[in-house]
Amino acid sequence: MSTDETAARLGAAVAELHRLLRRRTTRRANRPALAEAQVELLLVVRAHPDVSVKETARRLCAAPNTVSTLVGDLVDAGLLHRERDPGDRRLVRLRLTDAARQRMADYERHRAELLAAALAGLDPAARRALVEALPHLDTLAALITAAD
Asked: How much is the pTM?
């Protein structure tokens, strides 16, 4: 199999796994799904509390007005705090609410349970191969990130 074919198969497999996990986890958590862009924004804010809207837009490679719209929706949903920076009133700082932290923890728990059950269905050699591939997947993600 050529490198291009391998990349295409890997991309398709990762995308399908992501799609299945997202749908099944959301159903299992018994909550309405958030848009993918909203989830990505919440992940940025969790990793960088008090991040500005402008910095969030940069990290998401999105237009600031798009991020502002997402922020407004998440504030309305009770998942995000938006506050003016006391040192520079032009800046808005973002933090997760307790409801967002709980929702994210619940989602991650349900996703881990789904994956654990699926992994248990694999034969030991296949399970071992996936575990051994984890550091390489981390490196692959880092290489893609560095390419930006």
From this structure: 0.85
